[in-house]
Amino acid sequence: MFRLWGKIYTGSHITEDFVIEDGSGDRRTAKVVHAVTALCRRFDLAEPIWLDANIREFQRTSRTRFSQDNFIEEIPFSFFEIQIIEED
Fold it and tell me: For residue range 77-87, what is the model confidence (pLDDT) as tens digits?
């Protein structure tokens, strides 16, 4: 089972969080893209733009943060963080 945890932080506090599970046979990248899309729908957010720094961090640590620089619209929180908590 693949599980991705999405968290919305305001300051240093988690104000919303949700875990997306994916049991499909898709590749890791497809699972991450689908999970981020589902989390954005759940949190009513526009999808963030993946910058090179986000990609490198995610490849290295299986987690990354999206701040205002990753969104076109103004965000009413500090950052959106995703983290893989279980992988097949």
Answer: 999 999 999 99
